Amino acid sequence: MDEMLRYHLPESPAAFLTKDDFARIQKRRGAHLPHWTANAAVYHVIFRLHDSIPQTILAELAAERERLRHKLSQPGNRLTAHERRILGLQYSEMVDRYLDAGHGSCRLKDARIADLVANALTFFEGSRYTLFAWCVMPNHVHVVVQPIGNHTLPDILHSWKSYSSKLANRMLGATGKFWREEYFDRILRDDEELGRTIEYVFENPGKVGFSSWRWRGKKE
């Protein structure tokens, strides 16, 4: 059996979607980024510590985001869904490279804090969401997740971040913002992309030299 089929989801007309499927996708504006949501969709999500990207790099990313937005909004733009997806992936991969460089306080390298975040991610697995893969990196977190029932991705993210930030600040004797408000999310389209993303998330620590990193998991 193909290795990717281990991650096959129960059949659902909304399980895998493209950005052109407007009948089932809702668009909303976050603090800085647009988000696409749909019932039963599977997402790759990245959220990060508040100080994980320097202001100079944030300015570069904002300029790149504006360039992509301008390109996509041009009159007569005939980019296909695949081409738009490639542009989005290029942007998210650029962000991921900056995060993997290890900027900021990297408070998630503290085993106590990494354990706290890992426990928050896995606590409601199977009841509020299906967690296909996750990884707590020194300054950011990857998850591959599918909300269950009436639970929404924004609510799930809020629960993880609110709970963990309060306890982490208490453990560290710190105050102020812990997580960056905004997060990056992408709807996965098919089993192949799901399997590929699961492996990417699970193998992320090794990519930056953490060969025995234990704060990660994937659904077998």
Low-pLDDT stretches: 1-14, 28-33
User: Helicity, in percent?
Assistant: 40-55%
Order of helices and strands: EEEHHHEEHEHE
What kind of sheet is the major sheet?
Answer: 5 strands, antiparallel
How many helices in DSSP terms? 5
In the CATH hierarchy, what is the architecture of the domain at 16-53 and 105-207 at level 2? Answer: 2-Layer Sandwich
The coarse silhouette is: globular
Question: What is the CATH H-level superfamily of the domain at 16-53 and 105-207?
Answer: Transposase IS200-like
Straight-line N-to-C gap: 14 Å
Task: Give the structural class.
Answer: alpha+beta
The average pLDDT value, as a whole number, equals: 79
CATH class of the domain at 16-53 and 105-207: Alpha Beta
Strand content: 15-25%
Instruction: Tell me how many strands there are.
Output: 7
Radius of gyration: 17 Å
TL;DR of this structure?
Helices cover 40% and strands 17% of the residues. It has helices at residues 55-72, 81-100, 111-123, 153-172, 191-207; strands at residues 26-29, 34-37, 43-48, 129-136, 140-147, 184-187, 216-218. Strand 1 (26-29) and strand 2 (34-37) form a beta hairpin.
